[in-house]
Specification:
Helix content is 40%, strand content 4%. The chain has 8 helices and 3 strands. The radius of gyration is 18 Å and the shape is globular.
Length: 182
Amino acid sequence: MKYIEVDEELYRHIASKTERIGESASDILRRLLGLTVPGVAPLPPKAISQPSLEVKQAASSLEITPAAREPLDFSLLVDETRLAEQKGAVGRFLFLLESLYQQSPQMFADILQIQGRDRLYFARSRDELLSASPSANPKEIGSSGFWVTSNNNTAKKRAILVEVLVKFGCDGARAASISERI
């Protein structure tokens, strides 16, 4: 892999052309320039271990399935007054994630499954995010014990939040509306 320096304006333009979470700058440029790399197959995503989900319960009635989860009230997620008090996009991103955690701490570990092609977005520790990407700028999500990378641009933060909200059962349109508040 080669590295090049680009000015801020060009970087923002490339980042604004992101179509999916985890799309690298090289992928974006290849798509924009109409280039392909023959013979290079994409790597399969890494399986994420979730020990709490791997343990088999003796009685099937004790198992919690996604269908058995209590639906979340996404209208309670956004407290406009408290959201306005947050500092910058990072503060609003963390506030919305923390609000989601407060509504459903038992299923919040599901966010660990959300990651980019070559990027870890969520982890249980600061060091885990830094070992995956030294420039991750990890921030703790309130006092949840979960951490998130914060060095993504605002569009990427919004895309990540949409994916989190949809994973928790929010419909896409409402998730997009909530993410616009970042």
